[in-house]
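Handout, section B. The chain below has 332 residues.
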Amino acid sequence: MFRNKKRGFTLVELLVVIAIIGILIGMLLPAVQQVREAARRTQCMNNLRQSTLAALNYESAHMTFPGGNFYGGGPWGHSFWVQMLPFIEQGNLARGYDLTTGGWTGGAGNTNPNKIWLTENRTAMPFLLCPSSDLPQFPVNYSGYDSDDFAGTSNGDDDIAGMLACYAGVMGSSEHRTAFEARGGIASKGGILVKQSAEFENPGVGFGEISDGSSNTILLAEQSAWMFNDDGERVDCRADGNHGFNMGGSYWNIRPFNLISIRHPINELVISRAVGSSGNVGPNRPIHSAHPGGAVVSVGDGSVHFLNDDTTLQVLFDLADKDDGNVVSVLE
């Protein structure tokens, strides 16, 4: 009688199988990560589309886009985000926000009622966040740092302002004929979301002023990546300057918040090279993105696009300005 001898895998065969599985996993992981990043980029574009539609709804109601800032009481204004709240399903926050006082809510001892409202509610609005970004969602206490190192204000832990947005309004380019010196850099009135002075009663830009075409002029741009100082330390360098989405500019020292004037290429991430981006607060903080290869922007007709890193600076200037006569399509 013969017995069938069961034969198992040899050690060599097991090692070969494990090696093959490892190779397959190594091949699949990048593909999975790419799919996940593609989904996050799509969500980021949807967030910006939602905000852009709010700006268009504002325009339908007021016949102009929101001004880059709005002045109620005090020297510090409120951002365009605040003006758009009723059009972006944030009516409750808009009703609780006091436009008759200033927009600055940081600082020890500050009794601004908006600070209390924002602190108690810890209002998080997902459409202001890029899902690929790991930047902080709320202001951070940077006490003890030099302002040029962290590129923002030193809000204390108990001085929480509104959440920090991963998107900024574009007020034009540093090359536009209206460009002027602002604190820390060059501001502009060449774009759609223009920073205004206190004497402007109706600061919004209308479609009739966008002679280059609304489909050729950037409205909002992404700021979702870390920047770096000369020591290689990462720095949160967004247009709000650690003040929150609600902070608007001042009319007495020409300091914009939540607005940028295009001066640098996409994803210029070294602060010392991005002139006009450091301190509290530079108007030339670049468009930057946590997505590889470029950044998300929206234009005045409501469409959203991904601009590659190799987009030339001249093209960015032309896209930022609404009436420079240099018509460039983001679809080219």
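Note. The longest strand covers residues 167-173. Compare this with the example in section A.
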